[in-house]
Design a protein that fits this description.
The chain has 310 residues and is of the alpha/beta class. Helix content is 30%, strand content 27%. It is globular. The two termini are 36 Å apart.
Length: 310
């Protein structure tokens, strides 16, 4: 007998979760959220989950509280006798800490994986991890989705002439190359050196952008320092236009000011993270239909390979 399915959401991703539930065709599950004066909080399910397959939707942006809320919700579902618990994490926080890049630092992404498994999750669904190898940090199934599923059709509908796909750094060259091959467009790479975290030092563009319409592909935008500097340099070197596509709009610190004053024509992001403020240059594409389709396929033990564009 197939266990009933229920979708629930953490506080940060409620708007996205409501869209996913609507696309799936069911109501979002009822929860409450008690917050104490010292900052401690307690999520609670306001309906039974006994014997149910429970999908908990929560991006771990501003990571600490949202991650811990996810862990508490997993623990609560397990203690309430849920049949299976699936963590749907569109944006996986701490993913940049995927290795020891200097002495005496933690591998935060591995620690998060351990915490999720210790809490009792049976499966994880996420999108555009900062490092693909994070899937290997888990000893449970991980479904790694790609925003290319929504970005590629959007780019094709734009009918851009003289298109060039760009990577904002060497680390993103694999992603940019995948898009370039699919779009049958040349690729350029931006080489950068960092003075320290979130501060870009020297930057050079490797490849020809003069007379081209450039699309910069990235997995996330944090302070937008790299992205806006790359766009400005490409424009100075004769690019007709510079656009950016990024899955996760973290947009912290001076990001909005940098974007609004940059040479970027527009930025297209997903709604994996809710925007903190409005910008005329930022357009949001929803991943709700994609996640609803994948959740339905996981629940019905169907292949999700057809959702990938390669």
């Amino acid at each position: 007998m197939h266990s009933p399915i229920k979708l629930f959401s953490g506080q940060t991703s409620r708007q996205l979760a409501e869209k996913i539930a609507k696309s799936y065709g069911i109501e979002l599950g009822k929860t409450s959220y008690l917050k104490f004066s010292d900052g401690e909080f307690q999520p609670c399910y306001e309906e039974t989950v006994r014997g149910n397959t429970v999908f908990i939707i929560q991006s771990t942006c501003m990571p600490s509280d949202n991650l811990f809320e996810m862990l508490l919700m997993i623990d609560a579902a397990r203690r309430a006798s849920a049949y299976k618990i699936v963590a749907v994490i569109p944006y996986f926080g701490f993913a940049r800490q995927d290795r020891k890049d200097k002495p005496r630092v933690s591998i935060g992404a591995k620690l998060v994986a351990n915490l999720l498994m210790a809490a009792g999750v049976d499966r994880v669904v996420t999108m555009d991890l900062h490092a693909d190898q994070i899937q290997g940090f888990f000893d449970i199934p991980v479904d790694h989705l790609y925003a290319s599923t929504i970005f590629i059709p959007y780019i094709l509908n734009m009918n851009i002439d003289n298109l060039v796909v760009a990577s904002p750094d060497m680390g993103g060259s694999k992603r940019a190359n995948t898009y370039a091959k699919f779009l049958k467009a040349p690729m350029v790479i931006t080489y950068k050196s960092r003075e320290k975290a979130n501060i870009v030092g020297e930057m050079k563009v490797i490849g020809e952008v003069k007379g081209k319409n450039v699309i910069i592909m990235d997995d996330m935008i944090d302070t937008a320092g790299t992205l806006t500097k790359a766009a400005n340099i490409m424009k100075e070197q004769g690019a007709l236009s510079v656009r950016a596509f990024a899955t996760h709009a973290v947009l912290s610190g001076p990001a909005y000011d940098r974007i609004n004053s940059s040479a970027l024509t527009e930025i297209i992001v997903s709604d994996s993270i809710p925007l903190k403020q409005h910008s005329e240059k930022i357009k949001v594409l929803s991943i709700a239909d994609l996640f609803a389709d994948v959740i339905k396929k996981i629940y019905n033990y169907q292949s999700i390979s057809s959702t990938f564009i390669s």
